[in-house]
Amino acid sequence: MGIKVRNINPLVVKKIEKMAREKEIQRQEFLKKQIETLTFFRKQTTRKHHLEKLIDKNIQ
User: Fold this and answer.
1) Which of 32, 30, 26 is nearest to 3 (CA)?
2) Which of 16, 30, 53, 56 is most buried, judged by most C-beta within 10 A?
């Protein structure tokens, strides 16, 4: 599946390209990994908040 992102600030694009070069990967691969990491992190954070609420309910 493809994703297109437009109207990105040129300074941001240069920073992304620099970070990809530092990891010695292509910009597309760098962005793919960042999106996957973000998605996983958000899922974990949501799960953590849910568990914290359950714990709080059980303590009260």
Assistant:
1) 32
2) 30
